[in-house]
């Protein structure tokens, strides 16, 4: 009996010992990367240079990631082998030669500085009366407003986007039934002009490549329904600005960056990208309605333009859960960080640094772009 207890006890000690040593964290640099000075950076270079040849090769560089992609609150490194390999591929450290300290400093200046000191903006998408309490209210949509109000104190820059439609806009059910509006339809998706209603789709002759959903008339320019919902607290924001979208009567606009299909077309873009560029914004945080349309599309365009993008899921609301799930998949596929309001303070202050955010920036710096970036004055 006694020996059995003793051997169980010994086995437990051995198990704890093995656990401690096999699950220990990856090698981490001891200094707080956020506040590293030049001397410490020399020390970091020597720390990474394991074989002491004054060069850092790819496997040595990889050891930086456990310090770079780190959460101070949870005291853990983010591990994501796939993203780490994609970043290394983009940095393209020469196989034989590695990089010296000068080249390391260049990478530091181009990429790491932003990972450690991002400039963030909160984008509040379409929190307008019509979507909250007006002509097309989103069920439980107003529940996100206190969350957004609370979030604003983390940001110097806050953007309010507005759906801002002319009265005869192509997205309105009322427009297809108004005899004074002449906008030929080439595809009724099995309906007729008489039976078309909210939720149906059409294709118009003016933009045959675009499938248009029909909605109740909403957010008509200057109307009460188009104003920001009154419980949104806009006081005490240092730097706020508006972006209006959907002004072209013949084409809908979901993303706050451009009309449908327009991110690479200067004539379809809004002012948002240049407004963010002029402020040096590197990171955007998304809130508002609707998850599966305007907020999601804004996030996807932001990622295309190389903004590190965080989607604050508990500050966004959807209309249709099926489409919301599809959009969520598209967002994660395209390296949006999906987060909750609790994460925001740590991320904005860079005490929580996610690999996805690092990857999006690496792709912007070293990736090959199919389209030139939109030019701003
Ligand atoms: C709205 O909130 C109520 C109460 O929390 C909940 O029962 C209901 O399912 C919610 N509806 C939607 C569509 O989220
Ligand atoms: C669509 O518009 C027509 C004409 O204004 C109207 O009769 C119909 O009720 C509308 N559909 C909905 C769901 O409101
Ligand atoms: C239209 O109706 C036809 C025949 O009922 C059907 O085969 C087709 O899938 C429908 N198309 C759409 C877009 O609903
Ligand atoms: C834009 O911002 C200003 C100042 O914050 C505000 O008074 C105005 O109503 C906003 N709306 C639009 C659509 O410009
Ligand atoms: C939600 O979207 C799906 C997929 O587009 C569609 O099949 C379904 O009818 C929609 N549900 C509602 C309630 O509109
Ligand atoms: C998600 O992406 C797929 C493939 O690009 C596209 O067909 C689909 O419409 C997208 N869904 C949403 C909700 O954006
Ligand atoms: C998002 O990712 C999917 C899957 O990788 C891709 O097919 C799609 O084109 C992407 N969408 C955007 C808007 O970048």
From TrEMBL:
GO terms for biological process, alphabetical: pyridine nucleotide biosynthetic process
Pfam family, one: Isochorismatase
Gene3D superfamilies, sorted: Isochorismatase-like
Domain of life: Eukaryota
TM ranges: none
GO function terms (MF aspect): calcium ion binding; nicotinamidase activity
Keyword annotations from UniProtKB, A to Z: Calcium, Hydrolase, Metal-binding, Pyridine nucleotide biosynthesis
Ranges where the EF-hand domain occurs: 36-71
InterPro entries: EF-hand-dom_pair (IPR011992), EF_Hand_1_Ca_BS (IPR018247), EF_hand_dom (IPR002048), Isochorismatase-like_dom (IPR000868), Isochorismatase-like_sf (IPR036380), Isochorismatase_Nicotinamidase (IPR052347)
UniProt-listed PROSITE patterns: EF_HAND_1, EF_HAND_2
Pathway assigned to this chain's UniProt record: Cofactor biosynthesis; nicotinate biosynthesis; nicotinate from nicotinamide: step 1/1
Classification via PANTHER family: LD05707P (PTHR11080:SF2), PYRAZINAMIDASE/NICOTINAMIDASE (PTHR11080)
Name of the protein in its database record: nicotinamidase
């Amino acid at each position: 009996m006694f020996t059995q207890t003793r051997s169980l006890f010994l086995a437990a000690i051995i198990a704890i010992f093995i656990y401690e040593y096999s699950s220990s964290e990856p090698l981490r640099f001891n200094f707080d990367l956020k506040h590293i000075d030049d001397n410490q950076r020399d020390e970091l270079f020597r720390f990474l240079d394991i074989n002491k040849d004054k060069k850092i090769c790819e496997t040595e560089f990889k050891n930086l990631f456990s310090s770079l992609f780190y959460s101070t609150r949870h005291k853990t490194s983010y591990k994501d082998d796939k993203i780490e390999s994609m970043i290394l591929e983009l940095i393209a450290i020469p196989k034989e030669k590695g990089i010296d300290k000068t080249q390391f400093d260049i990478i530091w200046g181009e990429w790491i500085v932003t990972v450690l000191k991002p400039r963030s903006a909160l984008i509040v998408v379409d929190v307008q009366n019509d979507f909250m309490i007006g002509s097309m209210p989103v069920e439980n949509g107003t529940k996100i407003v206190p969350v957004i109000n609370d979030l604003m104190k983390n940001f110097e820059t806050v953007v309010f986007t507005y759906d801002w439609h002319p009265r005869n806009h192509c997205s309105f059910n009322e427009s297809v039934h108004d005899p004074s509006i002449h906008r030929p339809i080439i595809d009724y998706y099995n309906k007729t002009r008489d039976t078309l209603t909210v939720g149906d789709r059409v294709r118009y002759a003016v933009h045959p490549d675009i499938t248009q959903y029909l909605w109740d008339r909403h957010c008509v320019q200057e109307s009460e329904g188009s104003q920001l919902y009154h419980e949104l607290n806009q006081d005490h924001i240092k730097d706020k600005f508006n972006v209006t979208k959907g002004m072209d009567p013949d084409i809908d606009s979901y993303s706050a960056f451009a009309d449908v299909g327009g991110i690479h077309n200067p004539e379809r873009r809004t002012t948002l990208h240049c407004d963010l560029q002029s402020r040096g914004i590197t990171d955007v945080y998304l809130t508002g309605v609707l998850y599966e349309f305007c907020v999601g599309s804004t996030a996807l365009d932001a990622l295309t333009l190389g903004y590190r993008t965080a989607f604050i899921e508990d500050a966004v609301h959807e209309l249709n859960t099926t489409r919301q799930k599809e959009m969520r998949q598209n967002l994660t596929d395209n390296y949006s960080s999906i987060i909750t309001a609790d994460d925001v303070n740590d991320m904005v202050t860079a005490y929580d640094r996610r690999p996805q955010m690092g990857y999006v920036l690496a792709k912007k710096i070293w990736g090959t772009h199919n389209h030139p970036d939109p030019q701003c004055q």
